[in-house]
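tl;dr need the bound structure. longer version: we got a ligand (magnesium ion) that a collaborator sent over and nobodys looked at where it sits. i said id run it. heres the input, straight from their email, havent touched it
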Amino acid sequence: MRRLTSLQTFLVLITGLQFFTFYPLLATPYLSGPRWGAFLMLPLIIYCLAFSLRRKRKKPIPALEWAALAYLIAFVPITLSSLNGFGSEAPPTNYWTTVIACIATAWLLNELLSSSNYRNAWVARLAFYAAPLIFGLSVLYLWEVLTRGLHIPFVLLPPPSMIWTRLIHSLPTLWADFQQTFLKAVITGYALGCGLGFLVAIAIDRSPFLQKGLLPLGNFVSALPVIGVAPIMVMWFGFDWQSKVAVVVIMTFFPMLVNTVSGLAATSSMEKDLMRTYAATWFQTLVKLRLPAAWPFIFNALKINSTLALIGAIVAEFFGTPIVGMGFRISTEVGRMNVDMVWAEIAVAAVAGSAFYGIVALIERAVTFWHPSVRNARTV
Amino acid sequence: ADKVVLQLKWVTQAQFAGYYVAKDKGFYEAEGLDVEIKPGGPDIAPPQVIAGGGADVVVDWMPSALATREKGVPLVNIAQPFKSSGMMLTCLKESGVASPADFKGKTLGVWFFGNEYPFLSWMSQLGLKTDGGPDGVTVLKQGFNVDPLIQKQAACISTMTYNEYWQVIDAGIKPEDLVTFKYEDQGVATLEDGLYVLEDKLKDPAFKEKMVKFVRASMKGWKYAETNPDEAAGIVLENDSTGAQTEMHQKRMMGEIAKLTAGSNGALDEADYKRTVASLMKGGSDPVITKEPVGAFTHEITDAALK
Amino acid sequence: MEKSNFFKDRVMPVGVILLALLVIWYVAVIFLNVPFERDTAARAGTAITFSEILPKTMFQQRPVLPAPHQVIAEIWNTTVLMPITSKRSLVYHAWITLSATLLGFGIGTVLGILLAVGIVHNRAMDRSLMPWVIASQTIPILAIAPMIIVVLNAVGISGLLPKALISTYLSFFPIVVGMVKGLRSPEQIQLDLMHTYYASPSQTFWKLRWPSSMPYLFTSLKVAIAISLVGAIVGELPTGAVSGLGARLLAGSYYGQTVQIWSALFMAAALAATLVIIVGFAHTAVLKRMGTRA
Amino acid sequence: MTITPASVVSARDLGLTFETNDGPVNALTGVNLDVNKGDFVSFIGPSGCGKTTFLRVIADLEKPTSGAITVNGTTPEDARKNRSYGYVFQAAALYPWRTIEKNIALPLEIMGYSAADQKARIDRTLDLVNLTGFGKKFPWQLSGGMQQRASIARALAFDADLLLMDEPFGALDEIVRDHLNEQLLKLWDRTNKTICFVTHSIPEAVYLSTKIVVMSPRPGRVTDIIESTLPKERPLDIRESPEFLEIASRVREGLRAGHSYDE
Amino acid sequence: MTITPASVVSARDLGLTFETNDGPVNALTGVNLDVNKGDFVSFIGPSGCGKTTFLRVIADLEKPTSGAITVNGTTPEDARKNRSYGYVFQAAALYPWRTIEKNIALPLEIMGYSAADQKARIDRTLDLVNLTGFGKKFPWQLSGGMQQRASIARALAFDADLLLMDEPFGALDEIVRDHLNEQLLKLWDRTNKTICFVTHSIPEAVYLSTKIVVMSPRPGRVTDIIESTLPKERPLDIRESPEFLEIASRVREGLRAGHSYDE
Ligand SMILES: Nc1ncnc2c1ncn2[C@@H]1O[C@H](COP(=O)(O)OP(=O)(O)OP(=O)(O)O)[C@@H](O)[C@H]1O
Ligand SMILES: Nc1ncnc2c1ncn2[C@@H]1O[C@H](COP(=O)(O)OP(=O)(O)OP(=O)(O)O)[C@@H](O)[C@H]1O
Ligand SMILES: [Mg+2]
Ligand SMILES: [Mg+2]
């Protein structure tokens, strides 16, 4: 059973309204692209409007998804391809209403995809992955349209299309940089930093003396700023990736320490009492009770660190490197005004970082399956 | 007063003494200008700032300005207070570098962020590859300081005559232990520290007028600084809000800078320009600029200013 | 509990560890600074014995690792002996950085919590926003910071806010991650109870989800405030490195003033530690009010 | 009091299957039941037979996988939204960060009772469950039985016509239990509430109920529905009457029949 | 079997006061008690009278604030470290990340039983509490009573000479309860364990125990200690014998005397 929420109704309405205000624009000379698509949309729009107004309808309206999709297929290419036609002039107002309506429709589609329970497992899975994709594409779309429509100087922010062209033409460079920064510095530093934070947290937990002595000092390390630390590490560990590892270690250490310490404190007193009745050793209690209970916290740190490590390594490369690496490339290409290359490098970083995060999140789901945040998210 | 925003290429130091002196001594005010000087830093690309509307005029090096111009941000040189280049490569004698022929197989520290162009064109003139292979040189992206040389992580590093070189000396290494190669002497010097504005803004006569006044006052500042280096250094120190500069260093820097600005009255020497362009277009497989720039400089402003 | 325990429980452990660190530090100073003295001697053509080197390593001009007393002396000179309003006073710079940090942290916390609330309550947001929030964090801030500053400058925003926004950018993320987890941590039976009362989402939020997320919130806050200090310092570079601890670090590093770098680093670290400890106190106070078992 | 008994809960062929990591679990199958207004229905059956699950279905905390159910003539969801029932969970489920008083105030706050009214109700119900003086304590400072009583107080604090109680008196000693049984009967009599009550004690079920539902496990089914012939007025010593004992033994029979391990 | 009964638990003038946010709570005062080897001692008393607290003191989970106590002739701490008791908590306290099987295996893992032995013990105790087939489920997939049985199984899986059981059968229906009562008696008889058992059911206490300790609340005191005269061999129908009923009524008297609200 599905009814339209008021938000969805609103989105459908503005999309529909836009649709009619757009027609005058079709006559103007600078619109290019497949205009007929817009006319094909008419019946679908009317159909959806009709349904959205009948709020109390209880049966699902699968057509609404299709309508939203069709709308996007019709109008996104029109708005994109006519960007060239405007030249150096500013696009007319109803061009912008169309853009807004496209974004609204994309959001509507997302709302629909994620709020309905599809019977078919395949469709459900498709909907699951489509949502972030659609969101991302709308961001890119908006970016493209704004940078080109508003004639933003490209040295400030290049449009995605340009970044993409640059990206596919510089794959070997990007791959070399990725190897240097991600595979060597980030992975090693992440493992070492998280490992160290974890071990220190355990040591602190083991010894009350350390807990009182080391934890306040641990706070001290928490904000050693990369900018200050990176030159020192370059001085100590040389120009190559080893010094970046050191920076990443410092950046990831504290979140891990804090989260592990909190996690180890997260057991309830009855759970601890049970262990006491078994006269379990400290180590047994740790492995069998406190660590499992701490996993949700530890994974928080692992997730935060997965992005911090990348930022740390890249920023550290601003302070002296061999002439390869994502940070090196970014800093030099900014100076050369090759802003598209900078963003291509950023895109690689974003994909790599998100994938890294995703892997950590997947492991988290498997390990902390029992935690209400995972259990409830799955059943609701 | 007319507002002018000037974006420097680097942090507040004697390298920009002329502008600070002009402001401090009231030369700008006398022209009816209200000038705001924005210090730069390692992450600030002046062309980006001017393209984003954050400044009216910027200090930049010509290689970077020309490269930017080719990228579609039409920068125009309106004045060139620096006659000669202060860039050089400083090597430790003990690393075995005595002449450019000894570079092969060595590690060299270079500044990037648009400052690497002169180095790259020099290397391509020497026929040395910069990708770290056996018959080329290994290039390091050097940070902002001279540590790589002191730590012996590199055989040679980039220095400016007025700044980093003295830091090496300050670190306790004697001039006899060093070998230096000035770009000026190697025939690969490019123009440094010029004043650049956006081309389309120059179409506006009011703006042009403002720039004339600005250049006139700035040059007055520069000449004052040349003749009164100690006072100029003091003015720079006062304007340094980080409080990190030392008096000794700034005075020395001012002395060196004066040597570089000495030959210029502010007008760009076309011969220097031609040499810079030629050197940039020679850059081997990956030249800095691919075609002869058109309209990258104008004498209109300096002509009016120096009348 | 009793007064005498304060010494035994707090001062002594910290003191002992501190002492141990100092010893390690001095040893490291010797090891790291010796090569330079050797080289100097070698260039001068004189032989030098280890006992002659030792005192020299403690007072180098540009040490690889400055000795603790050098750093302390520098901090003393730039804090106590300097009027606070002076541009050479570390306190002045620390204050500049702190104000950006606090503003950024404040905005970041609010933003982070709002996003977490959205993600927990709206499925479309959960599915579509979260991946992009993550992706946003993989963008190296130092790379886009200048653009942010330039763009904000172009629309007339300058001064504290751009720096604070960069610190916001870094600090909201730990809060989102922690709060999403925390807001989802109530047990099924506790949620069921709310369900039976047909509590509105906002009631469920304030009476159940919010209190249960407190341990997660405070843990995240500790991480976030530390990171937002890092962010504020990063943000100081592209504003022209005018003032603040970041400018101080940069200038120190630019002129190879190791002692100055270290003293600025210490100031930053001390600032961070203080902030984290303050958050820690708030945490304890809240837990106490919530009647958590000691 | 209404004359024609309206059906408060009406289940038709109700079934519920849980999907678990090692296969589906049939918690309820083919349950048919009518609870009329003013009924006091006890559910009794071996551990794991689906009593809690059935109560949760009524409360709209679980969706049946087959069959139909109405509560107050509407769907369970609408009934829940009308706040037409109070639920006492099998575990106390007190919020650890609230004092006992505040825990009892929780539903009152949510349903928007005035501060003065809240105070009066808290005092009254605390007294009812004999916890006067413990209002300012946190849950972990109370004994197990006291926590359970606090959770009963919480459900009684607001006026729902239907009470769903899942083993409310499980952790209480006989004397308190007798006391609370009497109080509950009085309350029921006075307010004409409908009560669904899960218990493991046969005497308790017989003493309290107008209708006893006997269930059997795997899959959870209703095996017997026994209408009590006891009068509405029930002094404690009715438990020695032959009528009482007869009903009790009938329940015991039904219960034993459903059990897997009879000797 | 030993002939001279050694004292397993011996409390002298034991007192325990909790400090709370609104003043101290006297949970126990002046408790004197001896539990001998092989005894089956039941604790009975109104909710909140300190039964759990007393068990926790024996288990070294709570330190008495006055008086003395020995367990197995040593301090409770040493007894705990010797792993000389098994404890069944009033709430199940199962670890949510472990399946039922794994939860039962927990003490066995900690005490270093071999894998094969673990398996055998898990199977045996799961069968004992009638949960065969539920070993692979997670705690939240079980009903309340099943969780409690799992926690009993966990305590029975290893060989402790002293069993401390805090209302283990509270959430179970009569039939399962009878069954488990019998099983427990058999186990006790066979292994000569000492058992301290908290219950709210007078018949259960009388049926199981050799000694019944009646407690009264505020402050928690021992008001009566009743030695059972029932034989060691106890068929279920002993519960109708006059001897049984007499002891039961004595317990009820003692219990009522300690209660604050008698009619
Ligand atoms: N969330 C769940 N997931 C899977 N199975 C469940 C879940 N909840 C209950 N069950 C199963 O459903 C059956 C019925 O459980 P229910 O809690 O209704 O029993 P009950 O009659 O209340 O028992 P008790 O008297 O022990 O509380 C049990 O076999 C249990 O294992
Ligand atoms: N941690 C604690 N802090 C403060 N007071 C406590 C604490 N634990 C128990 N109490 C108090 O001690 C008294 C005895 O509690 P205890 O748990 O021993 O009762 P009990 O006999 O087990 O009751 P029940 O049968 O209800 O479980 C109660 O009044 C309770 O409020
Ligand atoms: Mg149940
Ligand atoms: Mg108890």
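gonna send this back to them w/ a short note. Residues D 143-144; E 51-52, 90, 166 surround magnesium ion (ligand 4) (CB under 6 Å).
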